[in-house]
Design brief:
about 180 residues; alpha+beta; 3-stranded antiparallel beta sheet; two-stranded antiparallel sheet; 6 helices; 5 strands; about 15% strand; elongated
Length: about 180
Amino acid sequence: MFQQPDLFAGATPASNSQNIAELIERITASSKRPRYAFLVLNLIVDAAGQGESAGPYVQVGAQRHPIRDWLCDALMPLAQKGTRRQTIAEKVQADLRAEGLLPDNPEDAGILVDKEVRRHVRRSARCNVSTAVSDLVRAGLLRRHYQGFRVDHHNRGAQREAVYTLTSEARNAFPHRAH
């Protein structure tokens, strides 16, 4: 009598959705903004690709962007919803006008205002990304270190950029994108 071997013996039955649910629970316990932190984690997993870490730079076409700036740019559409962006644009325009820096040509003025709004939003977004990453580190899903001019220096500055390393729990929650 022929007996077919069990092809699924030893396979772990944990599903991806179960891993994601556990991951969301961990993030929620560590973050005041768990949805935002989850988005940041998703983007870091994408940036890491097949590796364990993302950063200090992400290649986009022919350009390299610091990981935090890349994350900010990827999350920029969230900042463009609602009236907040319009309020920032009005304030920037008023400030430029008060300083005498607003061009008379409406097209040039619009370009300058858009550039300044983007700079303002990115500065704010960098703080939000750092907070979300700290929450993910606290949840045990990421490790963060810095690379650059002064490697392994206790101060964060000195022309250094962040590197985010996924823990095994984070990688296992996204098996279709990491490993």
